[in-house]
Amino acid sequence: MPKPIVxxxxxxxxxxxxxxxxxxxxxxxxxxxxxxxxVACEERRPMTGLLRVVGERASLSGLSRFLNKWPWSAAEVAxxxxxxxxxxxxxxxxxxxxxxxxxxxxxxxxxxxTVVTGDLIFDDSVPVKPKGRTMGGLGRHSSQSEQRVxxxxxxxxxxxxxxxxxxxxxxxxxxxxxxxxxxxAPFQSxxxxxxxxxxxxxxxxxxxxxxxxxxxxxxxxxxx
Length: 224
Fold this sequence. Notes:
This protein folds into two domains: 5-72; 78-220, no CATH class. It has helices spanning 10-17, 25-40, 47-51, 60-68, 74-103, 177-183, 190-200, and strands at 117-125, 139-143, 148-152, 155-162, 165-173, 208-213. By secondary structure, the protein is of the alpha+beta class. Strand 4 and strand 5 form a beta hairpin. Strands 5-4-1-6 form a four-stranded mixed beta sheet. The longest helix is centred in the middle third of the chain and has 30 residues, at 74-103.
C-alpha cells in the first residue's frame, strides 16, 4: 500500500533535513520521495516501481527530470553526507581513545599512544546491461559474478569503515580507453582511480586508516 511522506520516521526526517541546502524546494521534495521509496520498495526499482510505493503527487516525467536533468550536484550531496558522518564520529573516536587509555596497564613512564583504526576498502564490480545500446560508458568487462566477459558499466566503489559505522564514498565509472576515446572523455585506470580516492579521502581526526580491496584482507593494505 502506498505510504504518505508524513510516515517518515523522526530520525530519517532529521537526517534528510541535513541535505536541504543541496536542492531547490522542488528538487528537495523529489529527493525525499526518491529516498523514501528506495527504503520502502520491496520489488525491483525502476522508476514506475518507485512511483507505486509512496502516496504523494509525483509524475514519471518529474522523477526522470530529477534524476537526469535538474542541476543538483551528486558530489555536494556526498560531501554533505561524509561531513555529517565525520562530525558524528569525532566524539565516538575521542571516547574510544579514552577507553583504550583507561585499559592500559599501569607502568612507570609515559603511557603508549592509543590507536583507533578505520578501513578504506575498494571494490570494482560490473552492473550487467545486456540490453544497453546507447548508454554512456558501456564497455566489455570481465565479471566475477557472471564468470565471463559481459556488456555493462565498470563501477569503481569505495567504503570507509570506522567503529562499526560504514560510509559509502561516491562511486566512479571505470571506463576502458577505447570507450573514453569514443566519448571524448579522459581515461583513468583503476589504479589511478584508487590513487585519486586515497588522495581525496579525509579520515576522522585522531584515527589511522588501513587501505585494502574487497578481495584482500584490509590489514594487508597500507596505512594512511
